[in-house]
Amino acid sequence: MADSAETVKKTADTAKAAADKVQAQAEKMQAAGAQAFREGVDKSVAGLAELNAEGKKNLEALVASATAAQKGAEAISAQTLAYGKKSWEDGVAAAQSLAAARSVQELVELQTSWAKSAAETYLAEVTRMTDVFTASVKDSFKPINERVTASVEKFQAAR
Predict the structure, then answer these.
(1) What is the pLDDT of residue 1?
(2) Which of 1, 14, 35, 136 has its CB surrounded by the most CB atoms within 10 Å?
(3) For residue range 106-131, what is the model confidence (pLDDT) as tens digits?
(4) How far apart are the C-alpha atoms of 131 and 75, rounded to whole Å?
(5) CB 114 within 8 A of CB 89
(6) Cα separation, 119 vs 140, whole angstroms
């Protein structure tokens, strides 16, 4: 009977040692899982913070772009208004000089001179407006182009 008790004791000791091993292994696995979970959460939080920062930069670029577009529109509007005023004044002055013409020959010469001057002024104004518009578009797209370039560089660096 002593042998049976001894056998049972050995079996119990062996079972306890196996249970202790299993428990230690389970604790290791739990610790590794918890560590992996923490690292995953930390990476996710860092990724979200970076995404938020990129979104903020993108929004700032859109605001800068809209501001530049507004300034361009204001410049074009002011230039159009100034040209309209000058054109009206030139037209009134031309009408007065045409009314003061003393002969048909003088009237035709004044009319031709005024038409040539008006056409040259118009073409110069169109050129100026085109330049202002082109500059405005470039200024408007500059912040957005910078953000796109930065994003492309970031994606290429991540590859």
Answers:
(1) 60
(2) 136
(3) 989 999 999 999 999 999 999 999 99
(4) 11
(5) no
(6) 31
Tokens linked to 8: 């049972």
* Cα within 13 Å of Cα(39), Cβ side: 6
Helix, strand, coil shares of the chain, percent, nearest 5, are: 95, 0, 5
Mind listing the pLDDT tens digit for each residue in 64-91? 999 999 999 999 999 999 999 999 999 9
Task: Evaluate whether 64 touches 143 at the Cβ level (below 8 Å).
Answer: yes
Contact 98, 67 (CB under 8 A): no
Structural tokens at position 136: 């405005």
Asked whether 72 and 139 are in contact (CB, 8 A), the reply is yes
Q: Is the dihedral of CA 108, 109, 110, 116 positive or negative?
A: positive
Global pTM reads 0.66
Tokens in use for 83? 């040209």
Length of the chain: 159
